[in-house]
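Recap from last week: sequence in, structure out.
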Amino acid sequence: MATLKNKYDSEIVPLLCEKLGVNHRLRVPRVKKVVVNMGTGVMDKEEYQNHFQELAMITGQRPQIRKARKSISNFKLREGMTIGARVTLRGRRMYEFLDRLINAALPRIRDFRGLSRTSFDGRGNYTMGIREQSIFPEIEPNDVKSNQGMNITIVTTGRDDDEARLLLEMLGMPFGGN
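Predicted structure tokens:
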């Protein structure tokens, strides 16, 4: 079975060269990194440890723990408290994660009608939110104690949103009609 990286190199790059009118393959947009961010807020240590272990299973990489930079009394937040985790994926792990996201996780979302076409930031990066971690095949749904969402940002080298959208569509991202 061909991996997503092999598909990109052999099929997508020539098509993008043709569609964008580019004569050099290094000018073609590519995925630079994928950042997976899980904001847990204020919760007990055991609960966020479970969420961070699930994030590590999903991404295949140990998450970086994020701590509060300043205290906010209305949110019962103190400086230095653990409030989330993030993982930055590059290279082989990035392509493996994208492949699992596109082909295994997104089709498991209930009432899924496609991803929003408007979630680009103007510089060719795409961000989407996922409401629960149990859509990933690595997580056993019966073992999940509480659902936790996450943000996934796909950073591309595309000059604008149109180039990045074309790249992600060719990689297989299921965009909806909106």
